Structures are given as C-alpha cells and as structure tokens.
Amino acid sequence: MLGRPFGLLFEPIPAPYEPGAAEVEYLQRWLRTRRAGFAHWTATYGDGITWDHSPESLEALGAIVLRRTPTLDALADPANADFVEGASWYTGEALLRVKGGRWIYRDGDPEVNLFDGYPFVKQDGPFGYSAVPYRALRVLIKRGDPRHLRKRYDDFSA
Description:
Layout: H1 21-45, H2 55-68, H3 72-76, H4 81-99, E1 102-104, E2 120-122, E3 130-131, H5 133-143, H6 148-157
Antiparallel strand pairs: 1-2, 2-3
C-alpha cells in the first residue's frame, strides 16, 4: 500500500506491533505526566487560547511552536523539553479525536525507523494511518508554516 501524498508523517505501520512491557510502562508514564501537567503547560505557554483539540487550536499551537522553538536546534534543546513534550502530546491528542486510535511507543533509533524513539498515534483499523507528533513539529519548523499542524489534522481526518 502506498502512503498518502504528504510523506513520512502519516504512513501505514507495516505489521501489527505489540510493545514490550518497558515500552508500555514508558508510554503510560509519559501520558500520565503530560495529562497531569497540561493545565500548567497551557498557563505557561498558551494562556488565553482555547485548548479544545480543534483545528484552530492546532493553528495557534503552530504559531507558538515557531515563536518558542524557531529552529530545529531550539526544538531539540533540553531547556525546551517540557514545551516540546507538551506540544507533541497535544498534537497527538487532537489527531486521535478525529477518527479514534491509540498512542504507541516503540523503543529504538528514530534514525533507523521513523516510528521509534517518540510516542506516536495510530488510527484504528487495518488501514489506519499513524502520525509522529514530534516529527510534525520538526516539519512545521522546517517549513516555517504555523498552519502545518492544522493541515496534518485535515489530512488525518480525510
């Protein structure tokens, strides 16, 4: 099956994947941390924005990402880790609310497999597509396009 025309961010996973216990534990801890810290995250980085997982909120997030982390080096800077993790989580949650799905985490080298090393979302069903929110943030910065996350949302909902 060919991927959709927008490239590596939304590709079918080649085979069903069952994460190991350590991967499940990592993901559960990451999700708990993100959920528990979301109110603080929004107050710190996006006060005054309606964080309702809508396409419009993703546009607002895109603008914040470009202001806060305008370069790939800034995105990878440990000083910005809380912001980046929160932005990744929010992006994934917005995508999951479009057609359902689940979070998955696979340990491994993201330079070898684009689904390894970062939590990602996968739509339900045999032909469900997946998205790696951290990679979507990288593309947003590379393109300098604050609407990029909105476009991915629209693509994911098609």
